[in-house]
Amino acid sequence: MNRLDILQRLRAARPIIAPSMLKCDFGDLAREVERLTGANAKVLHWDVMDGHFVPNLSYGPMVIERVRPLTEMVFDAHLMISEPERFLDEYLKAGCEAITVHIEAVPQPTSLLRRIRDAGRVAGLALNPQTPLSAVEPFLAEIDLLLVMSVQAGFGGQSFIPTSIAKLQEARKMLSSETILSVDGGIGAKTIAGCAAAGTDLFVAGSAIFDQSDYVSAVDELGRLAGR
User: Fold this and answer.
1) Catalytic choice (76, 144, 184, 201)
2) Which of 5, 14, 44, 93 is deepest in the core (most CB within 10 A)?
3) How far apart are CA 148 and CA 150, in angstroms?
């Protein structure tokens, strides 16, 4: 798929529930992917942490590349790393269709975003809760996806920050209807509807899926609450 095909696929799937692989059982990764495929998830969200930009470590392109043949789901890589431009080619090679970098890590991201798009992939820009939308506004023409963090990047299982709703509303007004608006952090049954009402397209969910015994019902319920 090229970039436009990926975007068409994402837009057609809205509202999108994207399981965050940070919360999966890495001791049985293939089975987890099989279960998520069976739950009709359309996107797998890969939270990549380097222990520098954020305090924690997660996984890298080697793990993602090994999982790529197991599913046709779109791979959405969220690079919470310093100097993402140094490692971009590895994530492209691993098969990530969407790659998102942080404005806090790359304050002038134009050239990097263009590299992602030129490679035929979806280019995303993320911002942390304390970062105003004005920081990303100059680069909106260069992106296909905006990720609003509703918790501080780098830790799973945090509580949703309520002021994120207003930020999502403001972001939606700034973006074209073609741009995917994504939210990540504390997304579950009690928070997803408010985010959907604010105009969000893609919802990254960790505990709300992986802490449930039945992934099918978990994904279905989140989709229903998001207006599917």
Assistant:
1) 184
2) 44
3) 6
Catalytic residue at 184?
Answer: yes
Residue 52 has pLDDT above 70, yes or no: yes
Does the pLDDT value for residue 136 go beyond 90? yes
Residue count (the chain):
228
- Global pTM value: 0.96
Tell me: cis bond preceding 61? Omega within 30 of 0 counts. Answer: no
In the chain, what are the domain boundaries?
3-225
Does domain 3-225 fall under CATH 3.20.20.70? My reply is: yes
* Distance, CA of 158 to CA of 149 (rounded, Å): 11
47 is catalytic: yes
Give every CB contact of residue 92 below 8 A, 6+ residues apart in sequence.
Answer: 99, 116, 119, 121
- Whether 56 has a pLDDT exceeding 90, the answer reads no
